C-alpha cells in the first residue's frame, strides 16, 4: 500500500492546514462555552449549551479535520484530487465554519431565524464537499491501487451516512425555525416515529460519519506511522460493511415504530461492531516494530479505550450523555493523534519538495514535534476527557475543571503545531 502512494499530486500545505487550524478554533470555542455555561449545561443532553457544544465539536472540529485530511488522502492514496483548487477549499471551509457558528448561536439564543440560515450555509458547504468527493470517487482514471480499495469503499459508506445526517439535520433545523411547511410535510408522514429524526441525526453524524471515517483511515495511518503489522485485509472491508448494515437496521427501527421490537438487537449489534474494531486496533498496535512508543501511540490507545467504555456505558445504563461524551472523546483522541502524525509528515514532505535538489535544514520527521511534548499533552488530553465524562455524572464539581483541562489541552496542541510550522518556515528560509 505504502509503495503505491503518489506524492506528486499532494495539494499545497496551506490547504489541509487551514482546515486543521480552523477545527482547533472550534475546539477552543466549545471548551470556553462549557467554562462559561458551568454545571447547568450538563444537566441534560437537551440543554442549549450541550446542543451548541455538540455542533461545535462534531461539525466545527471533527468534520473540518476530516475534510482537511481527505484533501490530502484523495490525491496521495487514490491518485485523484478533489476539484476546484483553493476556491473550492475556501468555500467549503467558510460555509461549514459559518454554519457551525450560526447553529451554536441559534441554540444558545433561541433565535429561530438563525436555524434556516445555519442549515443553508453548513448544508451548502457539506453538499459542495460531497459533490467533489462523488466526482473523485466516480472517476475511472487512474484506477485505485489495490491496497487503497478497502479505504475508499469505507469512505464511500461514510459519505453516504454524512448525506443522511445532513438531510436529517436540515429538516430538524427547519422544524426548530417553526416553518409551517415543514410541519405540514412531517405530519403527512404518519409512519415516522416521534423524535426519530433527532435521534437519527445524532447517531448517523457521530457513528455513521465520524466513526466510519476512523474505520476507513486507521488501517492506513496506523501501520504507516506506528510501524505495525497491517490490519487483516478482509477486516478492512468486511467490518465496515457489517457496521453499515447494523446502522441501517437501527435506522429502520428508529424511524418505523412497527420495527421497534428489534431496536435493542440492532443497538447490541452496533456496539459489538465497535468493540470488534477497537479490540482489533489495540491488537494491531501491539505489533509495533519500534521498541519505544512514539507520541501518538497513546492517543490511539486512548481512542480505543474510550470507544470500549462508551459501548459498555451504552449497554450498562441509560446514560446517553455519558455515552456521547465517551464516543466524542474516542473520536477526538484519534483526531488529536492523527494531527501529530499528519502535520509533521506534511511539513517534512513539503520542505523537501520545495528544496528540489537541495537539502533543507530541519530535524527528522519524528522530531518536528518533540515526543515528550506530544506525550505530555496526551496525558492532559486523557485527563480532560476523563473529567468531562465524570462531569456528566457530577456536573456541579467537575464541569468547570473539565472545561479548563480541555482548554489547556487544546492550547497545548495548538502550540505544538505552531512550533512545527515555525520549523517549516525556518527550513524554507535556509534555502534562500
From TrEMBL:
The keyword Transmembrane helix is assigned to this record: yes
Keywords from the UniProt entry: Membrane, Transmembrane, Transmembrane helix
Membrane-spanning segments: 12-36, 56-75, 87-108, 114-134, 155-175, 195-218, 239-259, 265-285, 297-317, 323-349, 378-397, 403-421
Keyword Flavoprotein in record: no
Protein name: Uncharacterized protein
Provenance organism: Paracandidimonas soli
